[in-house]
Known about the structure:
heterodimer, A: mainly alpha, B: mainly alpha
Amino acid sequence: MDFTPSLIQWILAVIPIVALIILMVSMRWTAQQAGTTGIFIASAVALFAFSTPTDTLAVASAKGVWDAIFILYVIWPALLLYHVMSHSGGYDALRRGIQLLSRNELFIIVALGWVFTSFLQGIDGFGTPIAVVAPLLVAFGMRPVYAVAIPIIAHIWAKFYGTLGVGWLATLQVVDIDAATTLSMALQSSVLMCIQALLGGLTLVWMYGRWAAVRSGWPLVLIIAAIQGIGQLLAIFVDPVLAAFLPATAALVALYPLSRWSRYREADASIKDRPAMLHAASRPNSEAVPPMGLWTALAPYGLLTVLALCVSLIDPLHGLLDAAAFGLAFPEVTTGLGMTTAATAMYSPLRIFSHPGAYILLTAVLTFVFFKRRGYFKKWAQQTGEEPVRIVSALVQGAVPASIPIIAFLVMASIMKHSGQNLTLAMGIAAVAPTYVFAFLANAIGILGAFMTSSSTSSQVIFSDVQVQLAKAKGLPVSTILAAQNAGGAIGNAIAPANVVMGASTAGIAGQEGEILRKTLPWTIVVFILTGVATVLLALLMQ
Amino acid sequence: MIKRLLQNRMSYLSLSFLLFVAALPLISFGAAGQRPGLFWLGFISMGIAAAIPPVQRMLYPPKKS
């Protein structure tokens, strides 16, 4: 493909992204309104500046809707589980039970918001950790905006090697590199992701209780970040596919001895300012007694973990479930500037039984049936004095508003990809940046890909090969630039609109996506800068 | 009718959602199977689905608190 974008095209390609941020963050449009407006802006740029015909626009839009189904297949079951738990008193039981396990609020938030979220990311994907953990943190008494922002930030380090190495495998599929470069890229990626683990933990603690919490929590943060960050580096030598899962599990196991440490066994009275918490945090705010105990309330999450592990790690079962795949056909499409996307008989097949949505759905249905038979819904309604809620109706009322922006963002991303706007953005950065400035900015390309597609894997697929070509053209080590791409693809998830919408919907604050972005955007900028600096140092070292 | 639709959040979002979902097979079968009728029906469905939220915002902007 011979495609050389101009400066005007680069500026125009930036407009849809800038417009999305301004509409959501500054003008406080809802994600539905901003996302769908973004479709029209990206389409106009594609049509007038990138010579994209209407059939290409239509095919790109339809592929975007299909891409969204992978995320909606997590959101709808996760919301079902949320409503089942919420209307049976399950979350109130969890809140009361967790109080009994530890009196140290900071420790519990680290355990749930960071360690458990990361563990889920090790085996699951498509935003499942956010959808599962955000309502748990709300149940514990956290303000919903923080309950979404914290798990989003805290699981970023596990994005690339998470979901049993999906990002890693995707990268290897799209680039042609030798074994030594592959190993070097893997190790450097892990080094860069240590920044994400450490800053994720520190930010979580700071968000919870500002500097008093940092003073109290820093040993815990250092230990967990070391297990996750250095553990990921060492796990590369075992198997990169398990590089997030193994240290995430080790951190989960380490929680038990850490909970016995006197520093984290009792409540810390020195943490007075707790902006992330509601005033009545960690205290049940009603007289209603939940109809179940802690272990019953935790059982659905245990079942979810067991199902995820079985599907992921038992090869014959995985193969059997993986066999049922479904996808739609699309013809070859092109643009007037020579961007061509090949025809496909089955675009991005959805494996309906091995997708995380399948076992969240199974968990939700089994939990519903069990709780219904035990009469928990009726008992909880009597306790609270409220009418029993129709679960399916509540699910639709939450899931439809959450689905629109996710579809809209992915349609917009697909239009940008098919019209060549994505490629223009990456090539433009490389064209204007001197060698080491490009090394600094390389992770920004990964961030851009993940921001637009709400997926680190998609960022890898779109930009990894472009990064290899750019690294060679600039005379930079390919392994280092690819590592920066991998790190950036993970970081971008902190501001990915679909993640934010998913968290907002499961935390019951749909429409406040801009508030969540205000929490995660500063973290993203700081991690981007530090990753850029580390990339330059690695490039110098490797050369 | 359109006014009533746009004043009910669940109604207009549900319509938008259904149109997005309907557009997917229409565009796929229309484009891959060389059926222009289906293709354009899907494309128009996609356009209306995407237009509903911003049009609703412009016609009924949120009241400032």
